[in-house]
Amino acid sequence: MRPADTCEWDPERCEAATTERGCQRPAAVIVGADGKWRLCSECAGLPAFKRYKRRKAIEKRAAPSDMPSEADIAEYLAGHAARREE
After folding, report:
1. φ/ψ (deg, to 5) at 14
2. CA dihedral in degrees (4, 57, 55, 37; nearest 10)?
3. For 67-85, what is each residue's pLDDT tens digit?
4. Which of 2, 44, 70, 79 is deepest in the core (most CB within 10 A)?
5. Chain center to CA of 2
6. 7: which residues sit within 8 A by CB, 6+ positions away?
7. Is the confidence at residue 63, as pLDDT, over 70?
8. How far, in Å, CA of 24 to CA of 36, rounded?
9. How far is CA 4 from CA 8, 18, 76, in A?
10. What is the DSSP string of 45-61?
11. Which residues 6+ apart lie within 8 Å of 12 measured at CB?
12. What is the Cα–Cα distance from 29 to 64, expressed in whole angstroms?
């Protein structure tokens, strides 16, 4: 199974990637006016995508600083589970 944030193209077969095969690099660009393809920068430069003029870089978002830590979440869930058992 391929991760959701990988490139959606298979450069070896020159067609859309499948769950088993395709480019394994992370998607970096949205290509097409309607956001048709999420591609890595290498696949976005292939001749198959020359006709798409609209390109938008995918911003990597950091987690907000006010997000609870994994330990805080685990503690909260443990306390919640204990209350449900009562």
Report:
1. 55, 50
2. 0
3. 788 888 888 888 877 777 7
4. 44
5. 10
6. 17, 22, 23, 24, 25, 26, 27, 38, 39, 40, 43
7. no
8. 18
9. 9, 12, 28
10. TSGGGTT---EEEPPPP
11. 21
12. 23
State both tokens at 34: 């309607």
Q: What share of the chain is helix, strand, coil (3-state, %, to 5)?
A: 25, 15, 55
According to DSSP, residue 69 is labeled: P
Cα dihedral 60, 40, 8, 58 sign: positive
pLDDT level of residue 55 (50, 70, 90 thresholds): very high
Token readout for 64 is 């907000």
pLDDT in tens, 17-43: 998 899 999 999 999 988 889 999 999
Q: Report CA Rg, the chain.
A: 20
Segments of 1-86 assigned E as strands: 9-10, 15-16, 29-31, 37-39, 55-57
